[in-house]
Amino acid sequence: MTSIPKKVAERFIKEVGKFQTILKNAKNRDVNEADTVTIVNDILCYVFGFDKYSEITSEFAIRNTYCDLAIKLDAEVKYLVEVKAIGIPLKETHTRQALEYGANQGVQWIVLTNGIDWEIYRITFEKPLQVKRIFTMNFLDIIPRKSDDQEKLYLLCKEGLTKSAIDHHYEHRKIVNRFNIAALLLSDATMNVIKREMKKLSPLKVENTEIEKILRNDVLKREVIDGDEAKQALTTIKKAERRAARRSTHKPAIKTDIVEKPTESLLKESTSTPDESIDL
């Protein structure tokens, strides 16, 4: 659980409700994109804590086109914000546009929003380009006194960025997710533990293959053991097991007297899973 500074939590409590009312009124009036950008700009300032004049840049130029807003700290772009009109549902074409901006500019973090719905993406500049939707939030559903909602807001706010909160969150979720946990449950090490514990229930002999079959067919959801995400998790676990085995095998003996101490074209080649979010 993220430790959020008291002044930041108080700012969330004070400002979120105001902008929820503003967004509801704007949705009822079906305001255009330019007016939505103005509201989002103010949210970035008053809720997320950025200086409107020095840290929020509008019309950020990228290859003869423009991203609506960019967040800059110490002259470095931290994330880009692509804004659509409040009455327009966010679509895949909007996502592609926002990600192209990030790929062309070399910016890892991308926010796509219509003021109400917010989608946060991370680009990893490898070949092929890796794109992951990290989390989403509906601003109207935010309860500013609720710790879980404060944590979501903190990931995007100025204080969170200075602490690399969103990067830490991403690294944490890369490890702590349903695919890795499923892969660990199916590993020989875990099944050996299950087999050992089952012996406490009965002396009957149980094989790992029998335990694995039950886990696959009756315990785990199909979506966490099939598909690209599951395969990647299995690869990650097996690599970790091999590293651990090598460390154990090559561990030096301790003597008794001595103890030794990217571009648009890349984006088209990317592996993108925007529908597979890593939830908070």
Please specify the SSE layout and strand pairing.
Blueprint: H1 6-29, H2 33-46, E1 56-62, E2 65-73, E3 76-83, H3 92-105, E4 109-113, E5 117-124, E6 130-138, H4 147-156, H5 158-162, H6 165-175, H7 178-185, H8 188-198, H9 208-219, H10 228-249, H11 264-268, E7 271-273
Parallel strand pairs: 3-4, 6-7
Antiparallel strand pairs: 1-2, 2-3, 4-5, 5-6
List keywords for this structure.
single chain; 280 residues; 11 helices; 49% helix
Report the top-level CATH class of the domain at 6-164. Answer: Alpha Beta
Largest sheet: 7 strands, mixed
Percentage of β-strand residues: 15-25%
- Mean residue pLDDT: 86
Estimated structural class: alpha/beta
Q: Judging from the principal axes of the Cα atoms, what is the shape?
A: elongated
Residue stretches low in confidence (pLDDT < 50, at least 5 long) are 254-263
What is the C-alpha radius of gyration, as a whole number of Å?
Answer: 23 Å
Terminus-to-terminus distance: 10 Å
Helix residue percentage: 40-55%
Strand order of the biggest β-sheet: 1-2-3-4-5-6-7
User: What is the succession of H and E elements?
Assistant: HHEEEHEEEHHHHHHHHE
| Number of helical stretches of at least 4 residues | 11
CATH-scheme architecture of the domain at 6-164:
Alpha-Beta Complex
Do you know the CATH topology of the domain at 6-164? Answer: tt1808, chain A
Total strand count, please? 7
